[in-house]
Design a protein that fits this description.
It is globular, with a radius of gyration of 23 Å. Helix content is about 25%, strand content about 30%. It is of the alpha+beta class. The strands form six sheets. Strands 2, 3, 5, 6, 9, 13, 15, 16 and 17 form a nine-stranded mixed beta sheet that branches. Strands 19-20-21-23-22 form a five-stranded mixed beta sheet, with helices on one face. Strands 1-7-8-4 form a four-stranded antiparallel beta sheet, with no helix packed on it.
Length: about 475
């Protein structure tokens, strides 16, 4: 998540056509892919007999017990979206390729709202029902442990974003007058497609987005071919070939001015701005290129195939690190915000957390990257910024929140960002620059496209530095008071 939240301041085979079902589904909706029928409820005797083969309704994150799902890993999403900004109607077909991690007689997908018209598993009609944000699927035949399988869900309705959440505002699929602003951290992907909505299950994505002619659709990764227009509609195809957490997926749509090219180091660079921010296009493009190239020298090779950013005319008041397409909501970002979001391409996007409690590994690192960029530009040094932050009194709220254990009801607390960044500077002071910057590159190299934990970072820091660092990390990350030594 960008610093703007705090201070302004993210091979399934598709068969068939888009569904045309209308309104959002109600709780308890059940059906089959061929006709409405009774679903299999969790209390049914048949389900109870096969309880050992039912995928869990959560992925296992104790802070967000209903997020994600158990019993399978997704490898690939193919999302076919038709959206009309005028009516705010979305018709979708989600193709999912997954692998079972247990025998599966039933499994869940995360989906908020919409009318589900059809579900198939391995091409065969499956029974389904709705319970809150869960789409509960019972395939015609139990899926064996470790077996690959495909799911296809046809759905339609008006997307409803998550609103007024603590220190998050509005997120998910947010309709706008000319399209949609799509930023999904932490669990807003379910507001526009069914899936395993938790960062612990990353996957590759293909997007086929159809919008009225004159509207541009942007998604993660790179555009495949050229847009095609027919009958007053234009279809854009985008593909992200690198693993991606669901909260980083986007299909932002609207009127955009674009600039495309390459960074000085040769990385594809795509910048897009709402016409209201046309004066910012060249600056966004140029800065995104320069900062991406610089971070590649500090953190290691850029992990994706393109970089850039998008400024949309939606007053979100925050930025989000959507993979390859950082999103800036209703403001012209400065160097510090762009540096933050692009650092996330390494810290959070390529290397992802399995549990939200470790969020400082994303936000603390991206915050410290802001300070490194300032230092690189000859402005305030990281040391100076550190001491400015440290000068806050011992009764300041930042010292009462231990950032190494992010709180589910206050994930994006200033401590997770600022004190998380300060932890890294305290570490840099303790182990010295050669070991510190070697640590950053090694951390990225060893966990590229994978998952990371705080314990792993501490262990690597001790290995590279040859120092025992428990007291430093305990003071900065896990103690709810102002550290006095480091």
């Amino acid at each position: 998540m960008g610093s703007g939240r705090l201070a302004i301041a993210a091979t399934a085979v598709l068969i068939g056509t888009l569904g045309t079902a209308g309104c959002a589904a109600s709780r308890g909706e059940s059906g089959s892919s061929s006709a409405v029928a009774d679903g299999v409820s969790p209390g049914d005797a048949s389900a109870q007999r096969h309880a050992g083969r039912i995928g869990a309704s959560g992925i296992g994150d104790p802070d967000f017990p209903n997020d994600g799902n158990g019993g399978y890993d997704v490898g690939h999403y193919r999302l076919k979206i038709d959206y009309d900004p005028g009516s705010k109607h979305l018709a979708g077909v989600a193709g999912i390729e997954a692998k079972a991690t247990q025998d599966l007689s039933r499994f869940d997908l995360d989906l908020s709202g919409f009318k589900v018209g059809q579900v198939t598993v391995n091409g065969t009609a499956a029974r389904f029902e709705r319970s809150g944000d869960e789409l509960i699927v019972t395939p015609a035949k139990t899926i064996s442990d470790k077996a690959a399988f495909t799911v296809q869900v046809t759905y339609a309705g008006e997307p409803k974003p998550v609103r007024d959440s603590p220190n998050l505002g509005t997120y998910g699929f947010i309709p706008t007058s000319d399209g949609a602003f799509v930023t999904c951290q932490p669990n807003g992907a379910r507001t526009w497609f069914p899936g395993n909505d938790h960062p612990a299950d990353k996957a590759r994505y293909d997007f086929e987005i159809t919008v009225p002619e004159g509207v541009t659709a942007l998604a993660n990764g790179e555009m495949v071919g050229s847009p095609s227009t027919s009958d007053g509609k234009t279809t854009y195809t985008w593909r992200e070939t690198h693993p991606m957490a669901s909260y980083l997926a986007t299909v932002t749509m609207g009127k955009f001015e674009m600039r495309e090219g390459k960074t000085p180091a040769g990385i594809r660079n795509v910048a897009a701005v709402d016409p209201r921010y046309s004066d910012s296009l060249d600056n966004l493009y140029t800065l995104s290129g320069k900062i991406t190239d610089y971070w590649s020298t500090v953190f290691g090779p850029y992990p994706f195939s393109s970089t850039g950013g998008v400024i949309d005319d939606f007053p979100a008041g925050y930025a989000l690190e959507n993979q390859t397409k950082p999103m800036y909501g209703g403001f012209n970002p400065g160097d510090d915000v762009i540096a933050h979001e692009l650092a996330h391409q390494w810290f959070g996007d390529s290397m992802s957390i399995r549990r939200w409690k470790d969020l400082w590994l994303n936000e603390g690192f991206a915050t410290y990257a802001e300070w490194l960029w300032s230092e690189h530009k000859g402005n305030a040094s990281a040391e100076k910024i550190f001491h400015t932050r440290y000068s806050m009194g011992a009764d300041s709220a930042i010292w009462k929140y231990a950032p190494g254990r992010a709180k589910p009801d206050d994930l994006f607390n200033d401590s997770v960002y600022t004190r998380g960044g300060m932890t890294l500077h305290a570490l840099r002071q303790r182990i010295g620059d050669p070991a510190f910057f070697r640590l950053l590159k090694t951390w990225n190299a060893e966990h590229r496209y994978g998952y990371v934990t705080t314990e792993e970072f501490v262990a690597l820091a001790e290995k590279i530095s040859g120092k025992q660092l428990d007291s430093l990390f305990d003071a900065w990350l896990f103690t709810a008071k102002k550290p006095t030594t480091w």
